[in-house]
Amino acid sequence: MIHYDSPMAASAHSARNLPSQADEDRFWTLIESAWSRVGSAAANVRQVLTNRNPDDDDLDLYIFDPWLDAFLDSLRGECASLTSQDLTDLDRVLERKLYDIDRADIQEVTDGSDDGFLYCRGFIVALGRAFYEAVAADSAMAVPDAECEGMGYFFARLHHERFGTFPDTGSGISRESCSNPVGWPD
Predict the structure, then answer these.
(1) How far is CA 105 from the centre of its chain?
(2) Positive or negative, the Cα torsion across 86, 90, 93, 96?
(3) Cα 12–chain centre separation
(4) How far apart are CA 72 and CA 87, in angstroms?
């Protein structure tokens, strides 16, 4: 019997169901396209946030609050014509991105409970590839208490709304906090 909660079984299972490079590229393209509809002020702040010195402590923690709902609405519009398989593929990418940054060093910067840390990771993904990669490379680039709750299950919820079921990504991983054993070695 295979137990998918064991690291070996999860690795073997997820290796067969990793997101494709095309799906990953499509994912980040959708994120950028959604942001482009929100406006140039948001784009400028995203760039500043991505390129800032993480030791600067004059960051306004609520700077993105007005734009996150607009971004999620824009992303929903970008996904209007996607099929069940498209949404499943995108959810697999999102799930993997959230899993890969499910790390103690990032949680130490962002703070938050298990749910709160999922929302913080949702913020990291929502801000786009450049910010995501900056945080993945240096946890100090994360923003304390910055959350985007709607991003964590965005494609899964959209799939459920449209098709009546939640997608099965077949990845063998979880996006929930503290589920990545590599990110939480203790």
Answers:
(1) 17
(2) negative
(3) 23
(4) 15
